[in-house]
Amino acid sequence: MADITSSKTSAKAFAFGTVAATGWYATTSALLAAPLDYFIPIGGAVTLAGLIPILLNRHAVRQQANIDNVALTQRLGVLDRHVMVNVVDTNHCVSEANDQFLDVTGYRRDELIGKPVKILYCESNGQSKADEIRGTLLRGETWQGETPLRRKDGTVMHTHTTVIPLFDAMGEWTGSIAARTDITRTKKLLAEQETMETLEELRDDIWIVDADSERFTYMNRAAMRRTDWTKQNYKEKSLGDIAQDRGAKAIVSACRELKENGEGMTHFETVLKGKPFYASIKLLRVKNAEDRFLILLNDISDRLAEERKKSDFIAMVSHELRSPLTSIKGSMGLLLSNATGELPDKALALLGIAHRNADRLVLIINDILDLEKISAGRMDFDLQDSDMSELVRETNHATEMLQQRFALKVETKGIDKPLPIKTDSTRIIQVLTNFMSNACKFSKPNGKIVIEVQQLDESLRVSVTDEGPGIPSSDHHKIFERFADLENSDRSSKGGTGLGLSICKAIVESLGGTIGFETEENVGTTFYFVLPQAQCAEDGDRAEEEFREAS
Amino acid sequence: MINLLHVEDDADIREIAMMALGISGEFAIIQCESGDEALSEVENSTPDVILLDMMMPGMTGLQTLQHMRKMPHLAEVPAIFMTARTQQSDVDELRAMGNVEVITKPFDPMTLSDQIKEAMAKIDA
Q1: Which of B51, B54, B85, B90 to mutate to test the interface with A (most CBs of A within 10 A)?
Q2: Residue range of the domain that includes A332
Q3: Nearest to residue A428, comparing CAs of A402, A453, A410, A408?
């Protein structure tokens, strides 16, 4: 048998010793007798796939090889150096392995011989694949396919493998022999090729630019179409060649800024050759390679067109619904004020109902329009120096009718002095009015509502507390959801749209604040928001940006 | 008396505004149903204030006022838009024209005259 400890002499010993010992002789002879044309090159490697049918035939008939020993040694040497070969005995232990196998897997011969073959398996599918191979071999058939192997250092390699059952002269099964070709690199290349093909087909423009020279190193098809460059000439171009376009100028500046900062990613909207794009730029830093910019340009003209349509729709609905409401409310308002003469009490009462419901319709339309603005990220904010005490007083005044309707008493606390804050006063009144409206609707008649402003460190906490039934714990998580379906809320009788609090949340958060509630069943509920007094947003734009994120 | 030119395509709203402003007795009102009609009306007259609907078929309220602003005698006349479009950016855009204020629809007929006087005072200030 071959010397299993000496790797220097093992190649020859492996070849001759093993040939003499077992059916490998027949197998190897059959392998060598086959024309070399049957080796199919794949990505620079050689697979044994094409060889197998011939091999099987030859093996099956146990053809007596009549090959010159020298030629045999040479051929075995070539094979031995190229293909990984190992033999497994009936106990599923490795009994032979050639130098190539040891080189590639990283094992020494003494570490492998006699060890269960399963140490080479990968955990993910190793056992099931081994069972599949074993089943095939026990039927006397050859197994062929891809097998992952775990190297000694734990890394995984991929092999194309042919496993043939071995039989002794009596026809008894003595184990199996496997010939493998390392296809790890081939697989990687194929995967890379697939990735590149996918990038080529993408609708988005992809540019890869060398960070130092600013030259283009890759452009997909869409990018070439956009720039009117070709595969032949884009590598001669640099960012400087596009910098005259205003939108491209922004891309160039962003790249240079990223390089200066040394890392990171940036996103922004820009216009390139008259088309709007969403640009994403990442500085790629890879060890032992030049820094590169990965630039992805997503054409957003369709999205913007959709947004324009939506915006036009909002304007149209806003106008079309509010115009008739103006007439309805205006007519009823004039009648109620006796501008056309005294009306009987019953008529006034009915008109009052109609007028209140027209008001309700206005609120519903406003909520729906606000929701549309939130969804489209188009709600405007007008940040001005304001006084929270004044905003609370205004809200209290604006909800007087509602308070009277429900016979409620309102107490204000903490508004006896000016409380400066930079915020959008109209939107804050909208939030407070919503809190007040809920408090009025859910309070018991003759109950009390408390509006309180508390000065915190650099912020203000504004709360509205009612003595209503409280909110069941099962509903707490739904409170700020749109159209929240709450137990005991009886929305239809209370007259809400189910949108108010979700709109409040979006408004408060986009103004840099937080919103919340505290509640106890059968005691009452407090809704509150906390807003920083010095609004960190420099102007409305920042607030709008936050609003988009919040929504 | 305040000479007010009201430009509004919706006949119902014109009637309500006429009644609402008539109660106070402080306004002399001329009404037009389109921008074109309003431009003809002001060729030889100078109202104290122009009340404009924003969205009208044909010439919008904004376009009507832009034309009026080109007429020397109307270059600085106070204008008040009545609009359902209440986006702050829209309001800012209108105010940027100068001597412009905005009243939101639906308006309260009982306070309309006060709202117009307040808006005129704001423009004056």
Answers
A1: B85
A2: 312-376
A3: A453
Check A326 against B55: CB less than 8 A apart.
Answer: no
Q: How far apart are CA A385 and CA A403, in angstroms?
A: 29
Question: End-to-end CA distance of chain B, in Å?
Answer: 20
SS (H, E, C) chain B: CEEEEEECCCHHHHHHHHHHHHHHCCEEEEEECCHHHHHHHHHHCCCCEEEEECCCCCCCHHHHHHHHHCCHHHCCCCEEEEECCCCHHHHHHHHCCCCEEEEECCCCCCCHHHHHHHHHHHHHC
- Domain stop point among A376, A401, A431: A376
Evaluate whether A527 touches A546 at the Cβ level (below 8 Å): no
**Among B10, B12, B15, which would you mutate to test the A interface (most chain A Cβ atoms within 10 Å of its Cβ)?**
B12
ipTM for the assembly: 0.72
What single-letter amino acid sits at A99? D
Domain range enclosing B19: 2-124
Do A265 and A243 belong to one domain? yes
pLDDT in tens, A353-368: 888 888 878 877 887 7
Set of chain A residues whose Cβ sits within 8 Å of the Cβ of B16: 326-327, 330-331, 334
> A299, A320, A355: which is the final residue of a domain?
A299
Residue B121 is which amino acid? A
Identify which of A322, A333, A380 has the shortest CB distance to residue B108: A333
Q: CATH no. for residue A539?
A: 3.30.565.10
Tokens of A62: 């146990």
Question: What average pLDDT does range A406-420 have in this prediction?
Answer: 92
Residue appearing with tokens 């190897």: A28
Listed in sequence order, the DSSP H helices in A203-344 are 221-227, 246-261, 301-336
CB A218 within 8 Å of CB A207: yes
Per CB-CB distance under 8 Å, the chain B contacts of A331 are 12, 16
Residues of chain A in contact with residue B10, where contact means CB-CB under 8 angstroms, are 323, 326-327
Q: How far apart are the first and last CA of chain A?
A: 76
Radius of gyration of the CA atoms of chain B, in A: 13
DSSP 8-state symbol, A93: B
Which residue of chain B comes nearest to A315, CA vs CA?
A: B85
- Which pLDDT belongs to residue A303? 84
Number of structural domains found in chain B: 1
Would you call A330 and B85 a contact, using CB atoms and an 8 Å cutoff?
no
Task: Provide the CB-side half-sphere exposure for A546 (13 A, CA).
Answer: 20
Query: Tens digits of per-residue pLDDT, A155-174?
Result: 888 899 999 998 888 888 88
DSSP A116: B
Rounded Cα distance, A517 and A499, in Å: 16
Report phi then psi at A216, rounded to 5. -75, 130
User: What is the Cα A542 distance to its own chain's centre?
Assistant: 25
Give the CATH number for residue A155: 3.30.450.20
Give me the pLDDT at residue A498, please: 65
The answer to the question of residue A197 being in a domain is no
For A198, residues 6+ apart whose C-beta sits below 8 A from its C-beta are: none
Residue A534 CB: number of other CB atoms within 10 A? 10
Q: Which of A77-81, A337-341, B31-35 has the lowest mean pLDDT?
A: A77-81
Q: Cα(B12)–Cα(B23) distance, rounded to whole angstroms? A: 17
Q: How far apart, in whole angstroms, are the C-alpha atoms of residue A268 and residue B47? A: 48
Q: Which amino acid is at A420?
A: P
